[in-house]
Amino acid sequence: MRTPNAVARDYYGILGVSREASDDEIKRAYRKLARQFHPDVNPDPEAQEKFKDINAAYEVLSDDRKRQIVDLGGDPLAPGGGGAGPGGPGGAGPFVGFQDIMDAFFGGAAGGARGPRPRTRPGADAILRLELDLNETAFGVEAPITVDTAVLCTTCSGAGTAAGTHLATCEACGGRGEVQSVQRTFLGQVVSARPCTVCQGYGTTIPHPCPTCAGDGRVRTRRSLTVKIPAGVEDGMRIRLAQQGEVGPGGGTAGDLYVEIHERPHDVYSRKGDDLHCRVTVPMTAAALGTRLTIKTLDSEETVDVKPGTQPGSTLRLRARGVPHLRGTGRGDLYVHLDVRTPTKLDADQERMLREFAKTRGEEVAELTKQGGFFSRMRDAFNGHA
């Protein structure tokens, strides 16, 4: 026959403190009683039993989890999880699942007994893509942008309540934001906590929501801003605008807005860091005789000399004509890569003059169809014949 469980011990009464006592008050009460009933000081057998009760009371009330069980009517030190439970004294509460046990020991789905979650929370960051030309990223620009984010509701100023009304304490959880219960399992007596389904864990309800934001404290809107792009930014960089992102629930502090730079391809220049590169085609005769080129840079015109005898693939360097450095002074360089163009079609007079020019330089020009000509000598060169 089942015997009823013993009544849970009054641990607060043993230490002589109230149920609202702070941790420091409990510690002081324990030290005072321990000095009075310690076996080395008081050899009375009843004092020894009293000292055991004092230690047990301090063990329970100095542990937040065990103290919570006491506050809910249980006894964390009762054998087999004895004490008051969901089924009442002497009754067996329903068996709980493994997840309930894990929640009791490691915190429930809502994070355990941590109180109601706040309605006002920080907002999320936002990101916006901004396309710019090379001149704009190189020298900076003030660019207008349009963002679509949540902003503070001006009707309720973030409170979420209709005019003249206020938040109400949740009657289901008493403002705690969670509902707790003491249950007995094969591991002993445990406490499980679940978010309150009535208030969604907030501990308060909104009897009369704001008609503009429906209780969220924020509304979505489209805004126009101007972002200052510094000179020298590169493709993929982000500009941070503090507190220009999403306003948080309940009118919480807005997150940041990040403007991500995307540089459009330029029709002349390619960019590598702060250096610029371009390709210029010069005729074969200009490369041989030398010439002067006018290069239009991002912000000026520069005249450069192509020396006589310039070879295909040569590069001219114009110092400090590239992109300004983002951090610091100075600019990158501009590299002009020369492509020497060889004529593809020659008339009879042009071909005759070129052959005569080749003869004056001692350069034999072989006809491709002549036996023992160019290809024969090329074969002999590869085979090591003189």
Automatic annotation (TrEMBL):
Binding, Zn(2+) 2: C170, C173, C196, C199
A single Gene Ontology CC term: cytoplasm
Residue stretches making up the J domain: 10-74
Domain CR-type span(s) in chain numbering: 140-222
GO molecular function: ATP binding; heat shock protein binding; unfolded protein binding; zinc ion binding
Pfam families hit by this protein: DnaJ, DnaJ_C, DnaJ_CXXCXGXG
Keyword Transit peptide: no
Listed NCBIfam families: DnaJ_bact, PRK10767.1, PRK14278.1
Protein role: Participates actively in the response to hyperosmotic and heat shock by preventing the aggregation of stress-denatured proteins and by disaggregating proteins, also in an autonomous, DnaK-independent fashion. Unfolded proteins bind initially to DnaJ; upon interaction with the DnaJ-bound protein, DnaK hydrolyzes its bound ATP, resulting in the formation of a stable complex. GrpE releases ADP from DnaK; ATP binding to DnaK triggers the release of the substrate protein, thus completing the reaction cycle.
Record text on subunit structure and interactions: Homodimer.
Name of this chain's protein: Chaperone protein DnaJ
Gene name as annotated: dnaJ
